[in-house]
């Protein structure tokens, strides 16, 4: 049986001003100049897995289709290789726009909860800000716990190999003056660790 | 205001609203009221359009009714309407040089936002003019003759067409071409879009007409070295490069080429884009005009070392056309006008590394394919790859070096159409599957879009997407041994990998590498992209900012053959206007030497027009009025202040400054 869906977009599907807002962020202004040539998708090594190609994400952003863009898997697949930005004939910093969209997706709480990329990013920053260093074994365990912990069983051989070659330390890494780090981070860009969106709450909401 | 022995100064002052252009920012009524308070002003009016017929009529009547003897109009730039108002002043019975114009549009209204300050500035400018105009003298314009010959620089289709048009009108034309033959880029094409007529068939008749025209002096293998003088009287020095062949004796029999010490052609043939080889002595191409061989100094053993058996000389013993003693020579000609038609160069495809030009042998530029398709080309018209195979799948990539901020920002205009032409020819000759990868297809022109329709019917594939990369890295079995084009098919919405045998890069058009040097030579301007700048993009498209220098063809910007020919005709017509009028009306703003010249001669080398000489009897400087262009350099440089200039006398300038600096008026 063929499933038939309505794919038309009405004016009410747009969140007017979204595109303007993104394009007003420093580094994203050049999006105004996009000619939809598709070079970004042509060079993107991951475009073959994306639901919307990078070019389509640019078009959707400029046309204010906020929900479609922020829920797209594309922004999370972006591996930040910058090939698109390097090749773009209009000097659009596509990778930076992807970052901007990722941030907005997190702020709006619409990102895919158990998708490894945002989870890894969040766990990484938390660990770095709290301990000053990354304990990779712990990071991987946390990542697996918050995404799909069943995968851990399939990965034990890889883990063992990494541990044997010394790439995977079981020692807990930390700096000595963590209080200084906290103060430094706070003064650098007004980021107080407590002010970050509560990840645990997010996680619970997403898990439901 | 009254001066000793002279009639009372009665200034008529007019301020123009220029619709909203001036009136929106400058309070014109206030300017007129202010002017009325100034000494010597007998009448001050504001008017909506002074340049209109009623405006000019008003001026004319006022001169008679109010016995005005000086006129000031505060309006737009003198470039636009100085002539109009001088003429109106003359019709009113005054010498036209009793008129003075104040530019309050470009200098006040258009550059300010604050109405009060803009009005104050306009008033200051008006005050300056009122002070200055009292010192104006009656002057007469002079006429300078125009030399009835034209120099055409560049022997491509633009230069050829302009030269023939002028020569057919009976004018003497000097055509200078840098290469050994006429023809330019067009001679290298196979067919021309959209009608597919053979480029050689339509070009070579014109080339041979140039070669044999009684009014055209054709100098190939020559360059313009120096340009002096001014409109109507340009002194041009042309440098003839040595071709080591006496053009008057060579008949193009090519026996020397057969006899050359190199038995096989060994050096890349530039005419065939390096796809074939030639000997040090060669004829550029079969229809070359003139039919004279050239000896390449870079590769000829005799020219390089002087130790060759000179078998070519032996072959040419009857005609004795080969002459290794030839040296560079200079020649001077006088012309009234110059047409610059120096053409373009194609984009260097290796600057777009993602497409693999120079890395993969089967990536070609369009100009190379143009030679491959051509019957007189390196393969005799067979479209084959470098290994001799015929391609079964061909990808044509549009916009290489065009519409790209990283290389050239502009659209090169001709690539879409020539890519379609090549697609058609490749499909017709090889039956290959042809893919066009484009950003936007631009086919505006007579019969152009119909040609696109024809290609769709022929089954040529069009994929809307700018190619990401060309690679030989195969992922799939069918990709083995092929080049793979990775592109997003933006209309279908998929990223695709398309294996092909041959990639054709539709390279864009660029200014010539030496465009800046040529620009300086002819005292022209360049746009930001480096093409020569026309005086006005719409209303003076073939004029430059230098009088008597005109533009034709791609040196002004990318254009196709029909547009080039049209522009060349327009440039020829503009040159004819000058030549047929026969004289030039010159501003009377010439410099003159005062009594107290000490004859120090410091002004002599400074004059760009060589208008100053020293009179032997008085040992004082004398300025030739016919040659002086009123640049003012000698006036400023004279150590004893002994040179004055009409329309810019010390009295006029100092009064103007005093007026400008006078206390501002209350509005």
How many domain modules of chain A? Answer: 2
The run of helices and strands of chain A is HHHHHHHHHHHHH
As for the number of domains of chain B, it is 5
Query: What amount of the residues of chain B lies in strands?
Result: 15-25%
Rg of chain A, alpha carbons: 20 Å
Number of strand elements of chain A: 0
Major β-sheet profile of chain B: 5 strands, parallel
Under CATH, the topology of the largest domain in chain A is which?
Fumarate Reductase Iron-sulfur Protein, Chain B, domain 2
- Sheet with the most strands, sense and barrel status of chain A: none
Distance, first to last CA of chain A: 31 Å
Primary descriptors:
heterodimer; A: 208 residues; mainly alpha; Fumarate Reductase Iron-sulfur Protein, Chain B, domain 2; 2 domains; 0% strand; globular; B: 667 residues; alpha/beta; Rossmann fold; FAD/NAD(P)-binding domain; 5-stranded parallel β-sheet; 23% strand
Write the layout of secondary structure elements.
The complex is a heterodimer of chains A (208) and B (667).
Chain A: H1 18-23, H2 39-43, H3 54-62, H4 66-70, H5 74-77, H6 83-87, H7 94-108, H8 116-131, H9 136-146, H10 151-154, H11 156-164, H12 178-189, H13 199-207
Chain B: E1 11-16, H1 28-36, E2 41-47, H2 53-65, E3 70-75, H3 78-91, E4 99-103, H4 105-109, H5 115-133, E5 142-145, E6 149-153, H6 157-168, E7 172-176, E8 191-192, E9 197-198, H7 199-212, E10 216-219, E11 222-230, E12 233-240, H8 255-259, E13 267-268, E14 277-278, E15 281-282, E16 294-295, H9 301-305, H10 311-315, E17 329-335, E18 337-340, E19 344-346, E20 363-365, H11 366-373, E21 393-400, H12 415-430, E22 433-438, H13 448-458, E23 461-464, E24 469-471, E25 483-489, E26 494-500, E27 502-507, E28 509-511, H14 515-521, E29 549-551, H15 561-581, E30 583-586, E31 591-593, E32 612-615, E33 620-623, H16 633-637, E34 643-645, H17 650-661
Parallel strand pairs in B: 1-2, 1-3, 3-4, 6-7, 6-18, 7-10, 18-29, 20-27, 21-22, 21-27, 22-23
Antiparallel strand pairs in B: 5-30, 8-9, 11-12, 12-17, 13-14, 15-16, 19-28, 24-25, 25-26, 31-34, 32-33
Helix pairs in contact in B: 1-5, 2-3, 5-17, 6-7, 6-15, 11-12, 12-13
């Amino acid at each position: 049986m063929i499933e038939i869906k309505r794919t038309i977009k009405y004016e009410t599907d747009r969140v007017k001003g979204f595109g303007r807002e993104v394009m007003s962020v420093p580094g994203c202004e050049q999006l105004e100049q996009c000619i939809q040539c598709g070079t970004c998708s042509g060079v993107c090594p991951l475009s073959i897995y994306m639901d919307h190609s990078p070019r389509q994400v640019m078009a959707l952003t400029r046309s204010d289709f906020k929900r479609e863009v922020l829920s797209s898997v594309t922004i999370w697949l972006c591996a930040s290789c910058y090939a698109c930005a390097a090749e773009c004939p209009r000097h659009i910093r596509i990778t930076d726009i992807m970052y901007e969209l990722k941030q907005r997706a997190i702020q709006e709480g619409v990102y895919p909860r158990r998708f490894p990329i945002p989870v890894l990013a969040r766990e990484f920053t938390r660990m770095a800000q709290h301990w000053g260093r990354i304990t990779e074994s712990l990071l991987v365990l946390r990542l697996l716990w918050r995404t799909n912990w069943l995968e851990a069983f399939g990965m034990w051989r890889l883990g063992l190999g990494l541990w044997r070659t010394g790439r995977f330390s079981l020692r807990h890494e930390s700096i000595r003056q963590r209080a200084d780090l906290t103060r430094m981070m706070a003064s650098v860009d007004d980021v107080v660790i407590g002010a970050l969106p509560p990840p645990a709450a997010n996680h619970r909401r997403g898990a439901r | 205001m009254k001066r000793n022995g002279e009639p009372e100064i009665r200034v008529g002052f007019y301020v123009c609203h220029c619709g909203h252009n001036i009136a929106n920012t400058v309070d014109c009524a206030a300017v007129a009221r202010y002017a009325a308070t100034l000494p010597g002003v007998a009448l001050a009016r504001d008017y909506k359009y002074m340049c209109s017929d009623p405006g000019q009529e008003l001026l004319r009547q006022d001169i008679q009714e109010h016995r005005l003897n000086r006129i000031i109009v505060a309006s737009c730039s003198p470039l636009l309407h100085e002539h109009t108002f001088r003429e109106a002043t003359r019709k009113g019975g005054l010498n036209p040089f009793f008129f003075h114009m104040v530019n309050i549009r470009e200098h006040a209204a258009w550059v300010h936002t604050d109405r009060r300050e803009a009005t104050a500035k306009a008033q200051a400018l008006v005050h300056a003019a009122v002070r200055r105009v009292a010192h104006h003298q009656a002057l007469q314009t002079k006429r300078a003759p125009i030399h009835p010959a034209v120099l055409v620089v560049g022997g491509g289709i633009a230069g050829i067409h302009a030269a023939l048009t002028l020569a057919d009108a009976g004018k003497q034309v000097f055509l200078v071409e840098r290469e050994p033959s006429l023809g330019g880029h067009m001679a290298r094409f196979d067919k021309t879009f959209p009608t597919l007529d053979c480029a050689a068939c339509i070009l070579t008749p014109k080339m041979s007409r140039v070669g044999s025209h009684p009014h055209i002096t054709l100098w190939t293998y020559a360059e313009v070295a120096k340009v002096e003088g001014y409109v109507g009287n340009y002194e041009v020095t042309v440098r003839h490069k040595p071709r080591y062949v006496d053009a008057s004796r060579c008949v193009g029999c090519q026996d020397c080429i057969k006899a050359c010490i190199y038995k096989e052609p060994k050096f890349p043939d530039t005419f065939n884009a390096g796809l074939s080889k030639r000997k040090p002595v060669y004829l550029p191409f079969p229809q070359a005009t003139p039919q004279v061989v050239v000896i390449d100094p870079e590769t000829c053993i005799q020219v390089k070392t002087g130790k060759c058996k000179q078998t070519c000389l032996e072959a040419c013993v009857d005609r004795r056309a080969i002459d290794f003693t030839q040296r560079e020579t200079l020649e001077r000609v006088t012309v009234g006008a110059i047409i610059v038609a120096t053409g373009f160069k194609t984009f260097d495809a290796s600057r777009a590394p993602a497409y693999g030009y120079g890395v993969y042998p089967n990536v070609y530029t369009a100009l190379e394919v143009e030679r491959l398709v051509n019957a007189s080309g390196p393969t005799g018209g067979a479209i084959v790859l470098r290994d001799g195979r015929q391609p079964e799948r061909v990808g044509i990539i549009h916009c290489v070096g065009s519409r790209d901020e990283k290389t050239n920002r502009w659209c090169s205009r001709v690539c879409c159409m020539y890519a379609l032409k090549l697609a058609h020819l490749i499909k017709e000759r090889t039956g290959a599957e042809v893919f066009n990868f484009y950003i936007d297809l631009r086919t505006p022109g007579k019969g152009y879009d119909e040609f696109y329709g024809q290609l769709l019917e022929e089954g040529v594939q069009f994929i809307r997407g700018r190619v990401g990369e060309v690679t030989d890295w195969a992922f799939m079995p069918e990709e083995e041994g092929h080049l793979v084009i990775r592109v997003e098919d933006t209309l279908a919405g998929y990223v695709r990998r398309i294996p092909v045998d041959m990639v054709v890069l539709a390279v864009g058009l660029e200014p010539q590498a030496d465009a800046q040097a040529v620009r300086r030579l002819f005292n022209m301007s360049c746009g930001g992209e480096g093409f020569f700048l026309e005086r006005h993009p719409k209303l003076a498209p073939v004029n430059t900012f230098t009088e008597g220098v005109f533009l034709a063809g791609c040196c002004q910007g990318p254009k196709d053959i029909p547009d080039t020919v049209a522009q060349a005709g327009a440039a020829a017509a503009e040159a004819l206007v000058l030549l047929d009028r026969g004289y030039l009306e010159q501003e009377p703003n010439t410099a003159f030497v005062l009594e107290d010249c000490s004859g120090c001669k410091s002004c002599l080398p400074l004059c760009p027009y060589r208008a100053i000489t020293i009179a032997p009897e008085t040992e004082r400087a004398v300025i030739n009025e016919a040659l002086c262009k009123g640049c003012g350099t000698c006036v400023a440089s004279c150590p004893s202040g002994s040179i004055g200039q009409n329309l810019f006398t010390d009295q006029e300038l100092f009064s103007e400054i005093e007026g400008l600096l006078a206390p501002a008026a209350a509005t």
